[in-house]
Amino acid sequence: MSSHSAADDPFRKLVLAVGFLAVAASALLARASPATGYELSIYTMTPTTVWAGLLLALAVALAVAFVPSGSERSPTRALGVGLGGLAVFTFASVPILRGYRYMGQHDALTHLGWARGIGEGTISPFDLFYPGIHTVSVLVSTVLELPLERALFVVVLVSMLVFWAFVPLTVWTITESRFAATVAAFSAFLLLPVTTISMYLTPHAMSQTVLFSALLCFLFVSYLRTDHDRAAFTGVGVAFAIAGIAAVVYHPQLLAHLIAAFVAICAVQFVARRVSRTGRIAEQTPMYGQALFLIGLFLVWTANHGFFTDTIGYFLASVVDFVLGGGGTVGGSAQTQGESLAAVGGSVLELFFKLFTPQLVFSVLAGLFGLAALVGTRSAWVNRVRPESIYFVAALVALVPVFFVYFFAPGSSMYFRVFGLMMVFVTVLGALAIAGIGARLSSFGPTDDSSETAGGSIAGHPAFALVFALLLVLSLVAIFPSPYTYTASPHVSDTTMSGYETAFATGDEELDYLGLRDGPNRFDDAVNGNEQRSHYHFNVDAAVLRTDVSSEYDEDRYLVLTGMDYDREVTAYQELRYTEGDLAAVESQPDVDRIQSNGEFDRYYVHDTTPEV
Predict the structure, then answer these.
(1) Is 121 left (phi over 0), alpha (psi -120 to 50) or beta?
(2) I need a surface site. Which of 254, 282, 524, 601 has the fewest CB within 10 A?
(3) Residue-level pLDDT at 414
């Protein structure tokens, strides 16, 4: 070791110690500042010192990982990656650290109800379409003696860790490059599949399954390197089959998307073998058997659940209707959201920048790198990873028509689920592209296929630290919904949850509920553990809310308004649908009596005043 590196390592270790202490201090400060009620934005309600400490830790991690040192084999680089992961993990864990009762609205509340039903024995896991996260959450809750709400979020964090672990392992398997694996780790920390539009860092089966699919990517590139004759019976082959079973249990829709990707990969392998039997792609183990296994697995599972057959039929019919001129507006959900943004002074371009800048950067890098791999180049790095790059490009191309099938469906935002899976492949390709740039910048870059495995290494560069710092900030400020992205936090406070629990326990079961944005239905699922999603309750229109609720309905009902409703409608949505006056008008209406209140939850009894005929 040179004298430079000898002096350099102690300094790096000291800086790393500061970074780890910053993470610990941030976690303790977050723990010491528990939420006392519903919080519209986790970012503004969490002490600024928490975020400052985590950003300091990330800055240290990036500097240690990418700024060149005297020894490219220094263990401090690995510690830098570990510090970066710990900082982002702590960032994502703030809802737990600050004592949130639950983090998730809409589908997340229904998932909580299903997990509750499984835990209480009122729902069989085999009766659900995708019982994966619910069953695992019940297991975590039982073993660790955690509240079920907390256990579900632990499963969310574990799926995130799976993504972080297997993206770098996938890149390492392809390249055997320490620098490429480091780049892949920080690329994974960006959480590109999480967009807060149909893909969330809250309990949401599809989101967790997409993150889990990074394991399948790793097993795929490992499977390519197994012996041709007995590949399916090796440990990797068996692990791939087990992971496929886990994926269909977590969410069959994701497996359907993966089938499209693996069929495209098989097509590439088939054509390559037809063209030349001596090429690198032709020499790799084919995926034919594994693709057939995934297809068979999907068909067997969905045969017992007509829901998915009906869903596929619906989306295909939507495409046909559009082609024939009878369909709705293309991307209707996106257009509706665009109109709402304009109404509150925002724009689609602004929201796109806030939500998708990291995804755009990586998509451009992945596209250029994939193009270089397809057309061929003299770059030693591109040639080194060319087979796998072509596979991932083929997978992305195969997912494009799947994306548009969802895009044509009226009112659907499910195309963002396909987009989320595409971002898994884009993360890998983008990391390979950045590592390739590093190879060109570094005097230690490999000049042949074996130089790095023989002991060489691609050196870091400060520019990588700066770029990743910017992308990480842009990503982390948008992984949780907040007014920054014209949305409200999906935080469920203890007061709100206990209010619904009391209402459902003491209310007349014959009376339906009125509420805002399907709130009563979802909380009915969460509290009562309904096997079928509740559709008994109704939303109340703003015009009705501000005039006379009782005269609108022909039977008695309950009306629920929460502090979450007020903050969301008045602050986050800037009175787009319901104004502050609309929500306050209920108190002065005749025949509407408040019968329950706890500060964040108000339940009213709406008397039927319609004249009898």
Answers:
(1) left
(2) 282
(3) 83
Identify the band that residue 1 occupies on the pLDDT scale cut at 50, 70 and 90: very low
Indicate whether 443 belongs to any domain. Answer: yes
What was the pLDDT predicted at 278? 75
Q: Of the spans 312-321, 561-570, 582-591, which averages the highest pLDDT?
A: 561-570
Backbone CA torsion sign across 74, 72, 473, 215: negative
Angle between helices 48-66 and 178-189 (to 10 degrees): 160
Q: Establish if 217 belongs to a structural domain.
A: yes
Pairwise CA distance, residues 151 & 197, whole Å: 23
- The helix/strand/coil state of 165 is helix
Least confident of 50-54, 205-209, 540-544: 540-544
Shared-domain flag, residues 261 and 319: yes
Identify the domain containing residue 80 by its residue range.
Answer: 1-100
Report the percent of the chain where pLDDT is more than 90.
69
pLDDT tens string 194-212? 999 989 999 999 999 999 9
- Measured in whole angstroms, how far is the alpha carbon of residue 567 from the centre of its chain? 25
Same structural domain, 438 and 584: no
Give the residue ranges of DSSP H helices in 276-347: 280-283, 288-303, 306-323, 332-343
One domain for residues 173 and 71? no
Instruction: Look at 22-31, 80-89, 206-215, 578-587 and tell me which has the smallest mean pLDDT.
Output: 578-587
319/209 same-domain check: yes
Is there a single domain that holds both residue 60 and residue 14?
A: yes
State both tokens at 505: 């326990």
Which of the four pLDDT bands, split at 50, 70 and 90, describes residue 454?
Answer: very low
Q: Alpha-carbon Rg of the chain, whole angstroms?
A: 26
Please say whether the beta carbons of 113 and 528 come within 8 A: yes
Tell me: do 85 and 117 sit in the same domain. no
Residue 271 Rama label (left phi>0; alpha psi -120 to 50; beta):
alpha
Cβ contacts of residue 158 below 8 Å, gap of 6+? none
Do 226 and 332 lie in one domain? The reply is yes
Q: Which pTM was predicted?
A: 0.92
Say if CB 546 and CB 581 are below 8 A apart.
yes
Q: Do 102 and 493 form a contact (C-beta atoms < 8 A)?
A: no
Q: For the chain, how many structural domains are there in total?
A: 3
Per DSSP, what are the bridge partners of residue 559?
A: 514, 604
- Among residues 100, 122, 153, which one ends one of the domains? 100
480 located within any domain: no
Domain boundary among 438, 460, 482: 460
474-521 pLDDT, tens digit each: 999 999 999 999 999 999 999 999 999 999 999 999 999 999 999 999
* Residue tagged 């005097």 (tokens): 443
In a shared domain, residues 303 and 334: yes
379 within domain boundaries:
yes
Contact of 152 with 137, CB cutoff 8 Å: yes
The contacts found for 133-137 with CB under 8 angstroms, 24 or more apart, are: 133/203, 133/205, 133/208, 133/250, 137/203
Residue of 99 and 576 predicted with greater confidence: 99
